[in-house]
Design a protein that fits this description.
The chain has 327 residues and is mainly β. Helix content is 9%, strand content 49%.
Length: 327
């Protein structure tokens, strides 16, 4: 009987130990740890959603940055593999310092969009990579807060909430100035200062070499403003500072900034069509017709993925900045 009791006690202790461990892959990691206030902020590694909770005095001493956290139905269920239970709230980062200026595809990460954000005081522009389904809920002009400790841009979104309630999402920001010129691999344009440019205007680079091109300049509401083409033989066009949509050879690049005293260069590549017969240029999903012809031609195109139809066959093509492909 004594052996049976000891065995049962042992099993109970073993079961108790197992109960302290939360199985499964954790969704989140600790990104903010305020030991004085017992405040912890965890970030979902897939969506970027932020969860804040207040840990007890003993737990806060054992929690470290980057610790794995499981969160289910808005509640913390484990920290670092140890079972815990805390309610979470949406972190409050105060008044926004910045605003979204553009949302565009990320051709290096098809899962995501590149969101450009501008500081309202310093005019510094930085970028964040956001999952497409969440970026779809963002709008240009939307306020953005910054967490100076983590370097995250904080954006509010109703993603995943049928009642329209907002959640906080955090994405690590990279400065466009820190990755200026051709080192910026995510945006569809590059902005550089123009030496000795006077006045209040900015500049659009239209130096597309010997390729054929036509460029509609439009407002962000898609109102036609003016047109330029290879017939003008101009390497640049000066514009008032602001955001524009540029339609280059029928392909639109949206929400492109023009800044005072700086030149904006669209990232473009070239396709040299040398095959005989009729051709068609279509979008990446093959559904949208872009342009066509029946003669050999060299076209300039915004960076991205397309399909070129030659005869009855569709060929996938990728346009990279400054590169020429021959078909």
């Amino acid at each position: 009987m004594k052996k049976l009791i000891l065995l049962l006690l042992g099993c109970g202790m073993f079961t108790s130990i197992l109960a302290q461990t939360e199985p499964g892959e954790p969704c989140c990691n600790v990104v903010v740890l305020d030991i004085k206030k017992n405040i912890v902020v965890a970030r979902d590694n897939t969506t970027g959603q932020l969860y804040q909770f207040k840990a007890d005095a003993l737990d806060i001493k054992a929690i470290n940055p980057n610790d794995a956290v499981n969160i289910s139905s808005g509640k913390v269920t484990s920290i670092g593999g140890t079972k815990r239970m805390y309610a979470t709230i949406r972190p409050d980062y105060g008044e926004p310092c910045c605003a979204i200026v553009s949302i565009q595809p990320d051709y290096e990460e098809p899962c995501c969009n590149v969101v450009l954000v501008k500081n309202n005081t310093t005019n510094t522009i930085f970028s964040i990579s956001v999952p497409k389904q969440i970026a779809a809920t963002f709008k240009t002009g939307q306020g953005v807060s910054m967490d100076g400790t983590t370097g995250m841009a904080i954006v509010q979104s109703s993603y995943g909430n049928s009642n329209g309630q907002l959640n906080s999402y955090g994405y690590f920001a990279s400065s466009e100035e820190a990755t200026s010129g051709d080192e910026n691999k995510t945006a569809q344009w590059v902005i550089t200062p123009v030496t000795n440019m006077k006045g209040v205007l900015g500049r659009l680079n239209t130096n597309f070499g010997d390729a054929e091109w036509s460029l509609d300049i439009r407002s962000t509401e898609d109102k036609f403003l003016s047109i330029r083409s290879h017939h003008n033989k101009q390497t640049h066009h000066d514009l008032a500072p602001g955001l524009y949509n540029f339609r280059l050879n029928t392909i639109t690049v949206k929400n492109v900034p023009i800044e005072k005293g700086k030149e904006t260069r669209l990232k473009v590549g070239y396709i040299n069509i040398v095959s005989e017969g009729r051709w068609e240029l279509r979008s990446e999903d093959k559904e949208k017709f872009q342009t066509s012809g029946d003669k050999q031609k060299k076209l300039v195109l915004p960076v991205g993925n397309y399909h070129l139809k030659l005869g009855e066959q569709l060929f996938p093509i990728k346009i990279n900045d400054g590169e020429t492909i021959e078909m």
